[in-house]
Amino acid sequence: TERFYNCANGFSRKDDILPERFFREAGSSGDGIDIHPIDRQRFEEELYKYYRIRGLNPDGCFDDAGFLDKQP
Predict the structure, then answer these.
(1) pLDDT of the residue at 68
(2) Closest CA to 13 of 42, 51, 46
(3) Rounded mean pLDDT of the chain?
(4) Residue 38 or residue 5, greater confidence
(5) pLDDT level of residue 50 (50, 70, 90 thresholds)
(6) What's 29's DSSP letter?
(7) CB–CB of 13/45 below 8 Å?
(8) pTM of the model
(9) Closest of 39, 43, 37, 42 to residue 21, by C-alpha
């Protein structure tokens, strides 16, 4: 339901972003554990898959205005 309210208040795919440094800079999770920058195209593809699995449109929102009526 949080997603529904966010969309009703103007949030969309443009707001589902990571900080730019995640796509440019390598990270670390401790000694000898390097984390490569995230591939931006792969991130976009996975975000699209996530939306589809959750029943959202490509903009990350519900097409069904009666979504809340179906909630327990």
Answers:
(1) 56
(2) 51
(3) 86
(4) 38
(5) very high
(6) S
(7) no
(8) 0.74
(9) 37
CB 59 within 8 A of CB 13: yes
Q: Confirm if 65 and 59 have CB atoms less than 8 A apart.
A: no
Other Cβ atoms less than 10 A from the Cβ of 60: the count is 20
Distance, in Å, from the CA atom of 16 to the CA atom of 6, rounded to the nearest integer, reads 11
DSSP states along 31-65: TT-EEPPPPHHHHHHHHHHHHHHTT--TTSS-S-T
What are the CA-CA distances from residue 57 to residues 3, 7, 41, 68 (Å)? 12, 11, 19, 16
Number of Cβ within a 10 Å radius of residue 58? 11
